[in-house]
Task: structure prediction
Amino acid sequence: MMKYIYVSFLIFAFSIDSLIINAQSDIISLDTFFEPKTEFNSTRFYSALGIGGIIYGAGTYFLYESWYKNNGIGSFHFFDDRGEWLHMDKIGHAYTAFNQSSIMYHGAKWTGLYEDKSLAFGVTMGLVLQTTVEVLDGFSDKWGFSWSDMVANVGGASLFYVQRKLWGEDRITFKVSSWKRRYSTEWIVGTNGDDGTTLENRANDLFGSSFAQRYLKDYNAQTYWMSFNLKSFFEDSSIPNWLNLAIGYSGENMFGGFSNNWEISDVSRIILPNSYNRYGQFFISPDIDLTKLKVKSHFIKTLFRGLNIFKLPMPAIEINTRGEFVFHLLYR
Result:
């Protein structure tokens, strides 16, 4: 998932477009600055659009130079990666497309665009950002254009669009949780009887060693959530506005895209024992919708909206494909 790090960069970069100061004002309070306009503001719109375009172009070029160029570029081709990483990659695509669409939408609202135009802009830009990555994948010798990735992208953006059209709000949101984890340092011997490695070494090779790298890349540590705002579905109830119920999915024992076999120095093959069989995990957990908390400050509202893409640590019930039922006092 390293190739999608730029996605987080672009989300952040586009979200701070709202920090462009109106040249006609000498001093603007932070809170007023983050307040969406009720009418179209051309200064905000074209400034944000121009800087956003520059950041998009620079980010795409940086991604190409730092990632794709080093892995080989060839003719455009397709690659079927369905089932890879126990489908975690596909859910990650839906998560990213949903939240990119949301950020672009709220950025458009900040400039004073009307609802329908803001919604169209948000979803379109969310898909443009994701499609850019897929096109680069299509020219990469290591990967390829994935139609299943695109289906997941459209699914995530569509979930945002349909909710806004149907309810005028996000009753269901996509979130992620992750935490750097330790892997076994037990020595695993290769098929030639000499070369070997540990799962910790394998994780470092696949996912990186820093907290940030593991957060973005380690599918074993990641959990993707669909968080449902209960009050929105049961309006007459006494349920707090901010209380959500989240359903999560993750995978365990994944040390390769499709299997847990890999080569060491092109000489010896590592085959993990059955004790490391891959399996899926489903979770149910309470959650907090930060956007439903009653605050007056537009700056705090914007901050909470940005933080709401992350699932807070909470108690959780796990049901996995090994037939186990597990209670987690604090799942993160």
Remarks:
- DSSP finds ten helices and ten strands in the chain.
- Residues 12-27 have pLDDT under 50 and may be disordered.
- Residues 163 and 169 are 6 Å apart (CA to CA).
- The longest helix spans residues 42-68.
